[in-house]
Design brief:
Rossmann fold, six-stranded mixed sheet, 10 helices, binds adenosine-5'-diphosphate, binds magnesium ion, single chain
Length: 270
């Protein structure tokens, strides 16, 4: 674990409050974290603990109510749309429901072309763009020729999630936030998706932040684990320390909810 490296994404006192008065919800409550380059970090917590809200803050989709986010050692500045676009070249996300992440009226080749353009490839010849798109599709075992004229809603959930990974393959962000990326798909494609993400991580050296309610999955994929309860990080550390020697009863409960923590994500048996 490259713990000696500087953190690429940090937070101090990051807080998000929704609503006022009786409807006030503190979704994220003064969390501190340091994510280091090349690490796989999992944020684990029950439904409603604030994971997706934190992911949206990290991605810059919503502003924190309080606290600071530091990106590559400096306080993050995404005040203008231009700065946000620069930021999104470096940090990207895959969400639970892939259908929500797309404009359903954009064809799939347009979705992939946008990624090439975002990486500065607008001026490339058409043939080169097709080659890049086909390569990205083949990385996730999709056939580009069969997809070009389709719309996102014409694909299955597993295909959609693989298309999301093809986007990441083209965008090559420094940091990937994956918010429950496998919870909408069947167990078999789930293992494939995880495998592809880990392969991609090795290939482009991304930092991956996995967001999940499944502590077994967290144990399987991550170097570092943050346990989230009611908007707060109640425990964090190396996956081995936190999951094999949990200190908090909440963590123990999450572990007890997973019947076969060591077996469930053993991909060698798939
Ligand atoms: N846009 C919103 N407006 C009001 N409350 C919200 C909003 N988004 C999330 N919440 C609330 O914040 C809390 C955390 O939600 P969320 O971040 O989605 O948790 P998780 O992803 O861990 O399931 C929940 O109580 C949820 O109802
Ligand atoms: Mg969520």
């Amino acid at each position: 674990m490259p713990a000696e490296k500087d953190p690429c994404l940090s937070g101090r006192g990051v807080t998000k409050v929704f609503g006022f008065g009786r409807t006030r919800t503190v979704a994220v409550d003064h969390v501190d974290f340091d994510f280091h380059e090349g690490e796989v970090i999992s944020i684990v917590g029950e439904s409603g603990s604030g994971k997706t809200t934190l992911a949206k803050v990290l991605l810059g989709l919503i502003n924190p109510t309080e606290g600071e986010v530091y990106f590559q050692g400096k306080e993050r500045d995404i005040g203008s749309y231009r700065k946000k676009k620069e930021y999104w070249k470096q940090i990207q996300a895959i969400f639970q429901d892939p259908y929500c992440s797309y404009n359903i009226f954009r064809k799939i080749d347009t979705v992939l072309l946008d990624c090439i353009h975002m990486r500065g490839g607008r001026g490339l010849p058409r043939a080169k763009k097709v080659e890049l798109m086909a390569e990205a599709c083949s990385f996730v075992n999709l056939k580009f020729d069969e997809l070009t004229n389709k719309y996102p809603f014409e694909l299955s959930g597993g295909q959609m999630q693989r298309l999301m990974i093809a986007r990441i393959f083209l965008l090559k962000p420094k940091i990937l936030l994956a918010d429950e990326p496998t919870s909408m798909i069947d167990a078999c494609s789930r293992a494939t998706i995880l495998d592809m993400l880990m392969q991609l991580r090795d290939e482009i050296g991304m930092t991956v932040v996995f967001i999940t309610h499944d502590i077994g999955l967290a144990y399987y994929v991550s170097d570092v684990v943050y346990i989230m309860e009611n908007g707060r990080f109640v425990e964090s550390g190396s996956a081995d320390n936190v999951i094999l020697h949990p200190k908090e009863t909440y963590t123990q409960r999450l572990i007890n909810d997973v019947p076969k923590i060591y077996e469930e994500w053993d991909l060698s048996t798939v």
